[in-house]
């Protein structure tokens, strides 16, 4: 078991608790021991970066500092937006000694442990798409997905900007496909899998956001997908919860089930409904489960 | 080979094939045509197009000028991704046997083959008032010296060559064609951040309008595609930060961003349920009641009381007060950690500058020697 600091972020803590419970249940099966941090806050979701950038940097440094203080060299994330925000702040801090010193001094002044920039931020997707995590995943996914047609949806901030993320080719990613296939599913290909779900502007510019949101759902449906899987709870929220608004706006009722990455792998690994919590989804997941005879 | 692009003595040639979308706006005819080319191993995509036009099909239309990544004419898509043709070397592609598909840039009307109508692009650039407004008509007797530190805030924006590669894949613009977009907004930041410009408040008010900065969906395609390292999304974030610093925060996007700050200071976590009324206002939020109730049934609307409060949230509040005193607000906060001249790589052959002083945002550079 590898000890990693676990950063849930806002959604998995509250409105997407199913992401947290499925991640916690899956982690030991893929060789990860999740260390809960003493105290952390929101990463700012790109919004604090835009409103108060220096405060954004300090909030993220505080999260990284508590991960370091817990003796972990890896901070595990389960959200694209958390991943980018934490990696961006970490890059700033690693890249500039004077800046890191000022931020670290500020942290100490308010009672936070200093940060020496010895933590790497990694998404769960990366942990299970290669190496030991991938080998354990293959062993764990004994129940399989029985040829279920799954559309991988990456979203943006796990691919771009690649200079801050850099796990895979942002135009030809492979990690979700590899995991779907390792679990016995069939990965569906479609152009919008690397595009935006519209979530960051879904409240301020709903019409523009819906114009983005419809693309992956429509294309995945046309390509014959039974379900769509995403590594990001913000993508999940817009794809799942805002689907009803697409119906109102376009008359099309897609009924496309949206799964968190940890849920998809969790189904293949035989997790219980109490851990997967599909009842918390807006679009019913029942058709998928029926197909898998779960 | 009977071409002006001849292999240099001692260099070898490569064979490659590529497919080009041919299109004529006048007739509406569209065809994906395949071409085979033998070329020197150092060729770029632009060189290959030149060979095709010179030797095989003189009707092929594309734009070019400088051939050295500075004029911004030859933006086009290779396998769906916007590139500068003159920056794209073909050796690895040829050796892999892959046959790339070349098509015009996205989000702009196609005129012929790989040539797009740049008028919508230039219209948006003009809309951001792309010139310096020093706030006086008569030039002062003494020139105004701007420090490197001050220019660091816009060092990336100043690199833009207006090729349109960022606009090509802008996800917001696909959905809202009126969005000012990454190139125009990066140009806007280039002047908002320039200490010599006296028009920043007026500019920010304009950029805060309906199809301005808060339309950006943060897909980061612009940063990924820019061949010059401008990072237009970062420029848009800088404009947001400068707007909020100046108190220009009437847009729902700005209110949305400010609520995250408020949430972090008070509970540490995003106060999700209050985000809608804080962003859209109470009336709009009430109109969303039916939708919200649907989500509430699935536990997607966590009750605001009792609030979900992070342990020792006082630290987050104290940090806020502390950083406010240190004055790295606005764009200056965003460029921290960037090494302003870090993109220039000096090689041993070209004269190494391993010990060159690094000039960083927010830090006065050391005085020049001698």
List keywords for this structure.
heterodimer, A: 294 residues, alpha/beta, Glutathione S-transferase Yfyf (Class Pi), Chain A, domain 2, Rossmann fold, 2 domains, 4-stranded parallel β-sheet, B: 370 residues, alpha+beta, Fumarate Reductase Iron-sulfur Protein, Chain B, domain 2, 5-stranded mixed β-sheet, two-stranded antiparallel ribbon, 7 strands
Summary of the model, kept short:
Chain A has about 290 residues and is of the alpha/beta class. Chain A is built from 15 helices and 8 strands.
How does the major sheet of chain A shape up?
A: 4 strands, parallel
CATH topology (fold) name of the largest domain in chain B: Fumarate Reductase Iron-sulfur Protein, Chain B, domain 2
- Terminal Cα span of chain B: 55 Å
- Head-to-tail CA distance between termini of chain A: 29 Å
**Radius of gyration of chain B over all CA atoms, rounded:** 25 Å
Low-confidence stretches of chain B: 343-357
Order of helices and strands of chain B: EEHEEHEEEHHHHHHHHHHHHHH
Question: What is the β-strand count of chain A?
Answer: 8
Question: Count of helical segments of chain A?
Answer: 15
Describe this structure in words.
By secondary structure, chain A is an alpha/beta fold. Chain A folds into two domains: 2-124, Glutathione S-transferase Yfyf (Class Pi), Chain A, domain 2 (Up-down Bundle); 125-292, Rossmann fold. Chain A is 49% helix and 11% strand. Chain A is built from 15 helices and eight strands. Chain A has helices spanning 9-13, 17-26, 47-51, 53-69, 80-95, 97-109, 124-129, 131-140, 175-182, 206-222, 233-241, 243-250, 261-268, 273-276, 286-292, and strands at 2-7, 32-36, 74-77, 120-123, 149-152, 186-187, 227-230, 258-260. In chain A, the strands form two sheets. In chain A, strands 2-1-3-4 form a four-stranded parallel sheet. A four-stranded parallel sheet of chain A has the order 6-5-7-8, sandwiched between helices. In chain A, helix 2 crosses helix 13 (261-268), helix 4 (53-69) packs across helix 5 (80-95) and helix 4 (53-69) packs across helix 6 (97-109). The radius of gyration of chain A is 19 Å and the shape is globular. The mean pLDDT of chain A is 96. Chain B is α+β, with helices and mostly antiparallel strands. Chain B folds into two domains: 13-116, Beta-grasp domain (Ubiquitin-like (UB roll)); 118-135 and 146-271 and 307-339, Orthogonal Bundle (Fumarate Reductase Iron-sulfur Protein, Chain B, domain 2), CATH 1.10.1060. Chain B is 36% helix and 11% strand. Chain B contains 16 helices and seven strands. Chain B has helices at residues 45-56, 91-96, 119-127, 148-151, 165-168, 171-175, 181-192, 200-207, 221-225, 232-245, 252-266, 272-280, 282-287, 289-296, 313-326, 331-334, and strands at residues 13-24, 29-40, 75-78, 81-84, 101-103, 110-112, 115-116. In chain B, the strands form two sheets. Chain B has a five-stranded mixed sheet. A two-stranded antiparallel ribbon of chain B has the order 6-7. In chain B, a hairpin with a 4-residue loop joins strand 1 (13-24) and strand 2 (29-40). In chain B, helix 7 (181-192) packs across helix 10. Chain B is globular. Mean pLDDT of chain B is 90; it is low at 343-357. The chains are: A alpha/beta (294), B alpha+beta (370). Chains A and B meet through helix 1, helix 3, helix 4, helix 5 and helix 6 of A and helix 6, helix 9, helix 10, helix 11 and helix 12 of B.
């Amino acid at each position: 078991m590898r000890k990693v600091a676990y950063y849930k972020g806002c959604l998995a803590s509250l409105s997407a608790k199913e992401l947290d419970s499925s991640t916690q249940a899956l982690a030991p099966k893929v060789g990860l021991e999740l260390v809960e941090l003493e105290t952390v806050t929101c990463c700012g979701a790109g919004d604090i970066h835009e409103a108060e950038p220096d405060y954004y940097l300090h909030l993220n440094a505080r999260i990284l500092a508590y991960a370091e203080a817990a003796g972990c060299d890896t901070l595990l994330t389960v959200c694209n937006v958390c991943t980018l925000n934490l990696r961006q702040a970490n890059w700033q801090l690693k890249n500039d000694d004077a800046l890191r010193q000022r931020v670290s001094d500020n942290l100490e002044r308010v009672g936070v442990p200093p940060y020496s920039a010895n933590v790497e931020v990694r998404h769960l997707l990366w942990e299970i798409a290669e190496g030991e995590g991938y080998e354990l995943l293959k062993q764990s996914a004994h129940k399989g997905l029985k040829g279920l047609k799954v559309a991988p949806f990456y979203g943006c901030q796990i691919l771009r900007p690649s200079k801050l993320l850099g796990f895979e080719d942002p135009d030809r990613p492979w990690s979700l496909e590899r995991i779907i296939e390792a679990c016995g599913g069939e990965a569906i290909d479609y152009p919008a899998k690397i595009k935006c779900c519209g979530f960051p502007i879904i409240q301020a510019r709903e019409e523009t956001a819906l114009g983005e949101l419809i693309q992956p759902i429509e294309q995945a449906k046309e390509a014959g997908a039974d379900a769509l899987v995403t590594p990001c709870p913000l993508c999940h929220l817009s794809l799942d919860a805002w689907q009803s608004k697409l119906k109102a706006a376009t008359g099309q009722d897609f009924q496309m089930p949206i799964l968190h990455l940890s849920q998809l792998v969790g189904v293949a690994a035989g997790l219980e409904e109490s851990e997967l919590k599909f009842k918390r989804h807006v679009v019913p997941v029942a058709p998928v489960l029926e197909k898998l005879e779960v | 080979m009977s071409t002006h692009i001849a292999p240099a003595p001692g260099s070898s040639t490569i064979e490659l094939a590529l497919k080009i979308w041919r299109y004529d706006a006048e007739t509406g005819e569209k065809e994906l045509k395949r071409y085979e080319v033998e070329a020197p191993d150092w060729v770029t995509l632009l060189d290959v197009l030149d060979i095709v036009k010179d030797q095989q099909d003189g009707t092929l239309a594309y734009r070019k000028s400088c051939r050295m990544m500075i004029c911004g004419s030859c933006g086009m898509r290779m396998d769906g991704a916007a590139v500068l043709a003159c920056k794209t070397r073909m050796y690895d592609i040829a050796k892999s046997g892959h046959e790339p598909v070349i098509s015009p840039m996205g989000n702009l009307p196609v005129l012929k083959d790989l040539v797009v109508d740049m008028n919508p692009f230039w219209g948006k650039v003009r809309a951001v008032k792309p010139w310096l407004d020093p706030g006086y008509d008569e030039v002062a007797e003494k020139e105004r010296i701007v420090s490197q530190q001050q220019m660091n805030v816009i060092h990336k924006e100043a690199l833009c060559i207006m090729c349109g590669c960022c606009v090509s894949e802008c996800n917001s613009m696909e959905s809202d064609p009126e969005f000012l977009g990454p190139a125009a907004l990066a140009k806007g930041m280039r002047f908002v951040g320039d200490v010599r410009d006296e028009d920043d408040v007026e500019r920010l008010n304009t950029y805060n309008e309906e199809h301005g900065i808060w339309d950006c969906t943060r897909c980061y395609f612009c940063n990924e595609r820019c061949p010059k390292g401008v990072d237009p999304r970062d420029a848009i974030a800088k404009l947001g930060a400068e707007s909020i610093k100046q108190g220009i925060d009437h847009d729902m996007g700005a209110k949305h961003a400010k609520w995250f700050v408020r949430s972090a200071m008070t509970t540490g976590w995003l106060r999700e349920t209050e985000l809608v009324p804080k962003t859209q206002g109470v009336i709009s939020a009430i109109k969303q009641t039916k939708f919200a109730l649907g989500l509430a049934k699935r536990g997607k609307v966590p009750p605001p009381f009792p609030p979900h409060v992070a342990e020792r949230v006082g630290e987050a509040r104290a940090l806020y007060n502390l950083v406010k005193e240190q004055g790295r607000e606005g764009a200056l906060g965003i460029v921290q950690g960037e090494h302003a001249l870090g993109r220039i790589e000096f090689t041993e052959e070209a004269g190494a500058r391993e010990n060159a002083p690094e000039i960083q945002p927010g830090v006065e550079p050391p005085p020049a020697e001698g």
